[in-house]
Amino acid sequence: MDSDSGCVTGFYLGFESTGSHEVGLALRHAILRNHYRTEYELQETWHLYGIPEYIMTDRAKEFKSEHLRQVSLQFCFMGSLHKFPQAGGLVETIFDTINKEVLKKYGGYTGSKTEEHPPEAEKTAWITLHKL
After folding, report:
1. Cα–Cα distance between 109 and 43 in angstroms, integer?
2. CB within 8 A of 56, min separation 6: which ones?
């Protein structure tokens, strides 16, 4: 996410647990110019792309990996960890919006609080990437 404009510059959507490979794919999407086929019926084109000057991350292991360090060296951008957890609020807002406005509409959505999960959520939890 671009901290100046608040725009999402790149993403990776998948079913794997997040690791440095998935972070690298999201960075790839942010760096390369993107072209989408007509069946996506996009209302706007994606004009944000390019190598960032730096990326600010939390302290998750995928951001502290040797793999991501090598990617940042290859593309000449700096990696920096948030000084405190509240500093990550900008991107967390996007995740909250995706959860509440998109994922909640599909069967099996459980939300972030384990104690509030519906009892049948596990049985109806499925979605394809195409449907999403």
Report:
1. 27
2. 3, 80, 81, 82, 87, 88
Per-residue pLDDT tens over the stretch 89-104? 677 788 888 888 887 7
Write the CB contacts of 64 (distance below 8 Å, at least 6 apart in sequence): 81
Between the alpha carbon of residue 52 and those of residues 23, 47, 55, 101, 126, the distances in Å are: 14, 14, 7, 29, 35
Span 57-71, pLDDT tens digits: 777 788 778 888 888
End-to-end CA distance of the chain: 21
**Domain ranges within the chain, ordered by starting residue:** 20-113
Please give the residue that has the higher pLDDT: either 17 or 114. 17
In sequence order, what are the residues at sequence separation of 6 or more whose Cβ sits closer than 8 angstroms to the Cβ of residue 89? Answer: none
State how far Cα 97 lies from the chain centre. 12
Q: How many CA atoms lie within 13 A of 74 on its CB side?
A: 10
pTM of the model: 0.67
Q: Which two tokens stand for residue 75?
A: 């593309």
